[in-house]
Design goal:
The structure is a single chain. About 50% of the residues lie in helices and about 20% in strands. With about 60 residues, it is of the alpha+beta class. It has a single domain, classed as Arc Repressor Mutant, subunit A (Orthogonal Bundle), CATH 1.10.10. A hairpin with a 2-residue loop joins strand 2 and strand 3. The mean pLDDT is about 95.
Length: about 60
Amino acid sequence: MWTDTDIITATIPEFRRLSGISRSRIYELLDRGEIKSVHIGARRLIIIDSYRWLIERRRAADAK
C-alpha cells in the first residue's frame, strides 16, 4: 500500500489536498520556480520533493 511518503508527484487537485495550499497559490509558486512540475501528456504533476525543499528553505529562513 502507498503512503504519502511514497508519492513522488501529484496532480494540482491532489497537491491541494496534501498541502492545504490554494490552487492560485500553487500556480504562483510554480511561476516563481519555488516548486517544480512536469507535464505528462495533458497532465501537470507537481514534484513532491520540490515542495519538501520549499519547506526546508522556509524553515531555514525562519531560523535566521
